[in-house]
Design goal:
- With 537 residues, the protein is of the alpha+beta class.
- Among the domains are: 195 residues, no CATH class; 73 residues, no CATH class; 81 residues, no CATH class.
- Helix content is 20%, strand content 29%.
- It has ten helices and 24 strands.
- Strands 1, 2, 16, 17, 18, 19, 20, 21, 22, 23 and 24 form an eleven-stranded mixed beta sheet that branches. Strands 6-5-13-14-15 form a five-stranded antiparallel beta sheet.
- The two termini are 27 Å apart.
C-alpha cells in the first residue's frame, strides 16, 4: 500500500522560515512579514516601522468610531457584548410574554402579547437570565452594568490630581513669564483667566481651594452630594485584623465547581472579580483598530488601509511580497536527502517576479557582499565628516543662524531616525556555502495576470538561458538549479542553512516630483534558505 505523503500548510511557521530575507536592521524574516520602502530602497520589518492608529471599529457590528469617542467609551462598543463565561460574542434572542392590560373604557381586562429580548451565548449556552438580569423591551436596550465598589474614590482621586497637575502647570508658566509684559489675550491663555471665570459662573470653587487640607471632595456626577475622602487609608495593627476561620475554609464541605468562576473569568472583570458564576455580567466588546505603518527613517507610509471598516483594500500597500522577487524551495535532489559534512547538495529554487516590469536576478557571494557593504559605509562616514569640516563657519555666524526662527522650527519638528540594529544573537550564520554559477544572471519576465489564457507565453526574444542554471520557465517564474557545499564541522541534527545575496533591478513606478521619468535601481538583499537537517550516514 502506497504511503500517503503529508502536504505541509504554506502558512505554517515552520514552512515560512525555510526562506528568510535579511531586513535592514539585521533581523531575518519571511517575505510575507516584510515591507519595502521605495524611498529608502530598503526592507523594513515590524520593528523598523512605526505603527499608527487610523480608526476604531467594532468587530461585530462594524460601527466606526472616532478616537475621542473611543477614549470616552474606554475602547468598548455600546451595543455588542462578550460572554463572561467563555468570551464569545453574545446574540440577542426575542421571546414573548402575555400580560394583562385594561381596555380603553377601563371596565374589562385584555391579554396583550409583549415582545422581550435577552442575551444568549451560542457556544456555552450562557444567558443574561443566569445573572439575574431582567429581559429588555428593546433589542439594543441598555443592559445594567455593575458598578465597581471603589469607582467613586478613583474618580475623585483622578479629578483631584488633574487639578494639581493643572495648577503646577500654571505656576510653571507664571515663573517663566514673570518678567515680561503680556497683553490681556496672552494673560487669559497663559494663566487660565477664562477657565476661572467659567468656574465662577458655574458655581464651582476656585482651583486653589481644591487642596488636601479639606480631606474630602464631592464625587463628580454623584447626584447625592456624597463625600469621598482623599486622604490615604490609615495603617492597622495586625492584631486588630479579624482572623479567618480555617475550619470553614478547609473543612469537609464539598465545593460545587460549576458555581465557582475560573481564573480567566475573574481576570476579564478586574473591577469586580466575581467568585460565583451567578455574579458574571455581560461585558462590552472591545474595539479593534485599523493601523498604518510608517518607515522610521524617512517617515513615509508603507501601509495605509481604507478608513471604512468594511473595506479590505489599502490606499498604500508596500508589502515586500509585491516588489521583491520571491524565492521558494522547489525541489531537493534525491542525493540531498541525507546531508553529510563536506558533501555537495543540489536543489532547485523557484524565482517569481511579482512586479509589472521585467527584471534581472543575479546570485552573489554573501561574504563578499558584507565586505563591500562595510567598506561603503566607512567611505560614506568619512565623506560626511569631510563635508562637515569644509562647511564649518565662525561661531558668531552659527549663533546668528541658530537664533533665527527657521532654525528653531527645524530643530523642533525634525525627527531623528529611530532605527535599532538587531543584536548578534539574532544573526543567522550559514553552515553551507553556495556554489556561484558561471553565469548567475537570470531574466524574469513581468507578471501577467492573463498569461494562463495565452498559449504563446512571455516574450523571451534575445534571451539565451544557461541549461545548467535554468531548469524550466513558466510565465514570470523560473526554476534555478543551484548547489551548496556543507561545512565539515556540522553535527548531527544541525539544520543546513545556505546564504547568498540576491541582486535584482527594481523599477520605481512612483518617482519623486522633481523626477518625471521612471527610475530603476539595483537592490541587493541577503537571503537565507534552510534545506534540511544533518542525518546519520
Amino acid at each position: 500500500m502506497a504511503e500517503v505523503k503529508e502536504v505541509p500548510c504554506p502558512f505554517d511557521t515552520k514552512v515560512m522560515i525555510k526562506v528568510r530575507y535579511l531586513c535592514s536592521c539585521g533581523l531575518a524574516q519571511p517575505l510575507s512579514k516584510l515591507y519595502f520602502c521605495r524611498h529608502c530602497l530598503d526592507l523594513r520589518c515590524g520593528f523598523c516601522v512605526s505603527h499608527e492608529v487610523d480608526s476604531h471599529y467594532c468587530p461585530n457590528c462594524l460601527e466606526n468610531m472616532p478616537s475621542a469617542e473611543a477614549r470616552l467609551k474606554k475602547n468598548r462598543c455600546a451595543n455588542c457584548f462578550d460572554c463572561p463565561s467563555c468570551g464569545h460574542t453574545l446574540s440577542t434572542r426575542a421571546t414573548s410574554m402575555q400580560l394583562q392590560a385594561p381596555t380603553e373604557d377601563g371596565t374589562n381586562v385584555k391579554i396583550v402579547t409583549k415582545k422581550l429580548y435577552y442575551l444568549v451565548c451560542a457556544f456555552c449556552r450562557w444567558t443574561s437570565r443566569d445573572a439575574g438580569l431582567q429581559d429588555q423591551t428593546v433589542a439594543s436596550g441598555g443592559w445594567p452594568q455593575p458598578e465597581a465598589p471603589e469607582a467613586a474614590r478613583f474618580a475623585t482621586l483622578q479629578e483631584h490630581y488633574r487639578t494639581l497637575a493643572q495648577r503646577e502647570k500654571l505656576e510653571k508658566e507664571t515663573r517663566r513669564f514673570c518678567g515680561r509684559k503680556l497683553s490681556y489675550m496672552q494673560l487669559t491663555d497663559k494663566y487660565g483667566l477664562s477657565a476661572a471665570v467659567a468656574r465662577k459662573r458655574a458655581g464651582l470653587p476656585p482651583l486653589h481651594s481644591l487642596t488636601l487640607k479639606s480631606g474630602q471632595e464631592s464625587v463628580p456626577g454623584g447626584g447625592g452630594g456624597g463625600q469621598v475622602s482623599l486622604a490615604p487609608c490609615q495603617a492597622k495593627n495586625i492584631e486588630e485584623i479579624e482572623v479567618l476561620p480555617i475550619d470553614e475554609l478547609f473543612g469537609d464541605t464539598q465545593v460545587n465547581m460549576t458555581q465557582v468562576t475560573s481564573l480567566d473569568q475573574r481576570l476579564v472583570q478586574l473591577d469586580l472579580q466575581p467568585v460565583s458564576s451567578k455574579d458574571l455580567f455581560p461585558r462590552h466588546k472591545y474595539l479593534m483598530i485599523k493601523r498604518s505603518q510608517r518607515c522610521r527613517k524617512c517617515e513615509h507610509n508603507l501601509s495605509k488601509p481604507e478608513y471604512n471598516p468594511t473595506s479590505i483594500k489599502f490606499k498604500i500597500q508596500l508589502a515586500a511580497y509585491y516588489h521583491i522577487p520571491e524565492v521558494i524551495i522547489y525541489k531537493l535532489a534525491p542525493a540531498s536527502s541525507c546531508f553529510l559534512p563536506g558533501s555537495e547538495c543540489n536543489f532547485v529554487l523557484k524565482l517569481s517576479n511579482p512586479t509589472q516590469h521585467p527584471t534581472n536576478v543575479e546570485f552573489l557571494d554573501l561574504n563578499e557582499f558584507f565586505k563591500t557593504k562595510v567598506a561603503k559605509e566607512e567611505a560614506e562616514s568619512v565623506a560626511k565628516e569631510n563635508s562637515k569640516d569644509s562647511n564649518e563657519k565662525p561661531q558668531s555666524e552659527q549663533e546668528k543662524e541658530n537664533s533665527g526662527p527657521s532654525s528653531r522650527i527645524q530643530s523642533t519638528f525634525l525627527r531623528q531616525p529611530t532605527l535599532v540594529q538587531a543584536s548578534s544573537k539574532h544573526q543567522v550564520i550559514p553552515n553551507a556555502k553556495l556554489v556561484i554559477p558561471k553565469s548567475p544572471n537570470v531574466y524574469l519576465p513581468p507578471r501577467d495576470d492573463a498569461a494562463e489564457f495565452d498559449d504563446s507565453g512571455p516574450d523571451l526574444r534575445g534571451i539565451v538561458d544557461d541549461v545548467n542554471l535554468v531548469a524550466w520557465r513558466k510565465g514570470n517564474k523560473a526554476g534555478i538549479i543551484l548547489s551548496a557545499i556543507v561545512d565539515k564541522d556540522v553535527k548531527e541534527n544541525d539544520e543546513i542553512t545556505v546564504g547568498f545575496a540576491l541582486k535584482f533591478i527594481y523599477t520605481n513606478t512612483v518617482p519623486a516630483l522633481e523626477q518625471r521619468e521612471v527610475q530603476t535601481s539595483e537592490i541587493i538583499t541577503p537571503v537565507y534558505i534552510t534545506l534540511g537537517s544533518v542525518q546519520k550516514n
